[in-house]
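Q: Hi! First time doing this. I have a protein sequence and I read that you can turn it into a structure. Is that right? Here it is:
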Amino acid sequence: MKNFYQEKLKISAKSFHKNNHGERFSDGLIIRHQYEEANLAKLSWWDDVGFILNDYLVNISWIHHPRMAFEDQAEDEAHKRVAHIDSGVNDLLNQSEPNYVKIGNSRKKIISHTIKQQ
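A: Yes, that's right. Below is the predicted 3D structure, encoded as structure tokens:
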């Protein structure tokens, strides 16, 4: 069984490409971001490119730029180094008593925690 929504998207994509191609392509690619004059420290963390494949305009986006991979690695290392600090916060919430507010006839929602006196 065909998904009519997907088929309509295909038809509209082909129609758009048929009526709107031209100057945007250089060597068969649509390159939306030019970095020749940009400061390398201020580049974005993602990029994208478009091209034609079987009469369809195909867009490819990626977010794992090498700088993004470096940032992810630095964040992971930072989380490892401060993992012992977070354990005290979880223990504090586990020892507290939740305060509820009534939402409906039988539903409750936690709105705050009260720390038990020791």
